[in-house]
């Protein structure tokens, strides 16, 4: 007989929990919530827009209803499930995060999401400006809500894997580099101290460097977009939104098609091209150097903003921060196919799950430009490890669902913080909750730079005075 594992219950929650959206992330996080949060199963409900996950809900004994939220009905629908002291977990697409946050704020309900999502059409509506469609612009709407709400029921913004737990990896990585370079430092407490530490260590660039090597037994089907997580989510951020990055103070070459936003925190820029076709040179311990895609993400802006150091009104330090994502083989073929059809999403969509035969999601932060060159710190999680750790998900999903669980535990433990981003949370508490689900946590230094092996076949326009310029990192 299989021995029943006793899982630690990190926190008790007496209220009701409503999960909005039950796709790959919703299904994956449910068993983790049931294991680690002390709440009455009868108080959980799920609402979605389609049949995805109905079987999982039935198996776990959780009521499941198709009740899509819209601008017009969301208050009325949510009122059927939620009241003061409850928890709204938003894992949907096409539902405005800010509207749900406001709803929760007014009724004293805890909240967590994994992206700042707009209502349906918010990534593609031609009447919107690029700033409005960008993650920079969406994050500004969240910052405005944060400011106007002040302290109140905790609403954790964008706490999955990335955005989410990579912000906690980054703080660990900084402390590791400080230790390994002999910099005596106390663990920073406030935002300004973290920025000062990064500046002292002379980190110039932070990549969220991810290589997803999961493959299916079946080759990619022509005419179908395949991925290891939300296809519509990846299409929105990779193909419909512009490439975005936190723009560092060490950068000497502003990109030809780059733009600054006219208002807001000023930490990031965007390019007149989508991230899924913005290839960048990056590095992870398992694969060495490779090409990733600078797909826009909230953490590229939030990390750059959080670690900005100012003297009076002048910005004196900021790292360049962006995603360098080598998505799974099937998704790369899907992206090419989609661009060939003028960026229109394939009608058929598919998330690789039980058919995955091998592979790993290697997700971490790569800190470059300091005394020891470059340092990667993060999670190496194979599909085999994933299947032993938790049901209903692949390795990519588990890194995200662990983040959702960690964020929920933190929110329940800190219920009056108002709107918070991962960068503002206690990273060690969250790490304690998520680490058992992340496979191997690895830290590795490398002498690799983006100048390695250059100009072997053709002349190139590079800046040898500083390898860590975006100009040198950009491939195309
Ligand atoms: P999915 O595409 O598998 O599922 C989306 C779910 O949203 C479905 O259950 C669908 O029915 C539901 N939905 C769609 N429209 C809705 C509506 N109007 N009302 C209610 N529900 C609606 O997506 P997923 O892979 O589970 O991802 C969920 C969210 O998490 C997405 O926004 C995605 O971008 C985000 N995500 C974040 C991270 C991260 O690391 N931060 C990683 C992966 C996914």
UniProtKB/TrEMBL annotation:
Gene3D superfamilies for this protein: homospermidine synthase like (3.30.360.30), NAD(P)-binding Rossmann-like Domain (3.40.50.720)
Keyword RNA-binding: no
Residue span, Saccharopine dehydrogenase-like C-terminal domain: 160-443
Keyword Transcription regulation belongs to the record: no
Protein name: Homospermidine synthase
Sequence intervals crossing the membrane: 17-34
All residue ranges annotated as the Saccharopine dehydrogenase NADP binding domain in the record: 18-156
UniProt keyword annotations, A-Z: Membrane, Transmembrane, Transmembrane helix
